[in-house]
């Protein structure tokens, strides 16, 4: 294994350890020292690959965006309806549910650069969402998207009241169906 391959492997180990810890404990509770121990590397190695805690957090969160983009590339051309998009959106979030839960509940406690990642995530989600909305709905994108994200975040932030962990996987079809009923019965469909 050459030097570049070793660097890439080390970086991958650090990201995997950080994602696991952030998913389990949240962002605020995890130190660089914990990440380095979990990855089996020194603290200095973590800082060598990621200049600071915010950069590490942002990179971990960017993986969520990458997963979404990969799924959209694979299935995006097949998505004919808003319902299909919403189900795909929830599937990606379900795969990273604990990480996303901690992110949305602790976001305001994190650094500015990490919060920019949140804006990037929502922009990517809304970009793809917009394509479906234009075909099917007569409301402005911001109203429809904000209602959707608000509903998802509400259930996630209160998941202890609605069935605990894995709430997205357990409820995604029901959430999409109810959301679409609200849109349809509200006379919003074109």
UniProtKB/TrEMBL annotation:
Return the PROSITE patterns for the record. HTH_TETR_1, HTH_TETR_2
On whether DNA-binding is a keyword of this UniProt record, the answer is yes
- Report keywords, A-Z: DNA-binding
Q: InterPro entries per the record?
A: DNA-bd_HTH_TetR-type_CS, Homeodomain-like_sf, HTH-type_Tx_Regulator, HTH_TetR
What does UniProt give as the signal peptide span? none
Q: SUPFAM superfamilies, per this entry?
A: Homeodomain-like (SSF46689)
Q: Which Pfam families match?
A: TetR_N
Query: What ranges are recorded for DNA binding?
Result: 31-50
Q: Does the keyword Transmembrane apply?
A: no
Q: Which Gene3D superfamilies match?
A: Tetracycline Repressor, domain 2 (1.10.357.10)
Q: What is this protein called?
A: TetR/AcrR family transcriptional regulator
The scientific name of the source species is Enterococcus larvae
What is this organism's lineage? Answer: Bacteria, Bacillati, Bacillota, Bacilli, Lactobacillales
């Amino acid at each position: 294994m050459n030097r570049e391959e070793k660097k890439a492997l080390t970086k991958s180990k650090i990201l995997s350890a950080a994602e696991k810890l952030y998913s389990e404990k949240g962002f605020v509770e995890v130190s660089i020292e914990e990440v380095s121990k979990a990855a089996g590397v020194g603290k200095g190695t973590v800082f060598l690959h990621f200049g600071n805690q915010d950069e590490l957090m942002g990179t971990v969160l960017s993986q969520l965006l990458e997963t979404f983009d990969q799924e959209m590339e694979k299935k995006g051309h097949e998505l004919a309806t808003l319902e299909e998009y919403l189900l795909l959106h929830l599937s990606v979030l379900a795969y990273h549910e604990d990480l996303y839960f901690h992110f949305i509940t602790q976001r305001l406690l994190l650094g500015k650069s990490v919060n920019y990642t949140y804006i990037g995530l929502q922009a990517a989600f809304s970009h793809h969402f917009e394509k479906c909305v234009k075909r099917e709905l007569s409301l402005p994108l911001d109203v429809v998207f904000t209602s959707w994200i608000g509903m998802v975040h509400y259930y996630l932030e209160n998941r202890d009241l609605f069935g605990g962990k894995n709430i997205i996987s357990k409820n995604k079809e029901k959430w999409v169906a109810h959301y679409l009923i609200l849109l349809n019965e509200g006379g919003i469909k074109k």
